[in-house]
Amino acid sequence: MYCREDSLTLIEMMEDIPTLPESFMRIRTLMNRKEANIKELAEMIRTDQAIAASVLKCANSPHYNAMGHPVGSLPQAIARLGFTETSHIVMAASLLYGFTLPFGMNYIRALWAHAFAVGLICERMAKEHGLDQGEMFTAGLLHDIGKAVIGIRLDLTYFESNMAALHGEELIDAERKAYGLNHAEAGAAILRHWNLPESLQRTVAEHHNPETSFLPAKICALANTEANERFPFGSSLDHIGSTLACDPAQVEPQLPRPAVNKAETPDKRMQLGSEDNFLSKARALLQDTPWVKA
Ligand SMILES: [Fe+2]
Ligand SMILES: [Fe+2]
Hints:
Elements: H1 4-12, H2 22-32, H3 38-46, H4 49-59, H5 74-81, H6 83-98, H7 105-128, H8 133-142, H9 145-154, H10 168-179, H11 183-193, H12 198-205, H13 215-230, H14 237-246, H15 278-286
The chain binds fe (ii) ion (FE2) (2 copies).
One fe (ii) ion is lined by residues 114, 118, 143-144, 224.
């Protein structure tokens, strides 16, 4: 049992805190730059074999290669996928390959499969509500990273304990009792430690509070609930992808349209997400990539 201060101190100790994979940070930086181009993106991906393989496999998947013309180079693959989708593959793959977690591969896959579903739903809702889609995808992808932080830093039995079977408020209460903070707060603490934007920190901190006045957090909370209802923990990425791809209109939970407080919305630095290509994105991202197959 820890008190909140002890937990925060432990989380922020430098020695063995995991770092967000360098490729994840680099792709974020690149996406935030107005003049970023496909050549630079290819250069960045080239330095990481696992990620490069993910991008190439995705570009050669049946969905993106319906005509049966394989592409063998990264620039060709990126041109086929587009900047946004390539970026998403890089972010998701960099977390899977680069964020070392002390538990089994199946659990890691399940954790990131859930995170990926929430990211896709967040992104979709962001478009509807005029928020930055790339930033909301990132928020969804990282929303439960506090679970990894607790499992790595505070309680190595976290993922094997009764905690693993709890959800929602029950989980939040149990975590507060055991560690003095919950995984949403632990996640916000690590994002602060990594110097990620305050809007992301707040979104992660409040992702279990659908009543929050902070619109990005509200969207993330609803996306999380939606993902949990539709995809029980352990659902495969294939299942998530095909379900979202077949039924995109129902993916987006109903959100009353609150007045958007400009001061509280993230900077609109990225104007990614062109037209709604959610179907192709979900299908292509979730099929034929090495991190999909269990
Ligand atoms: Fe959560
Ligand atoms: Fe979650």
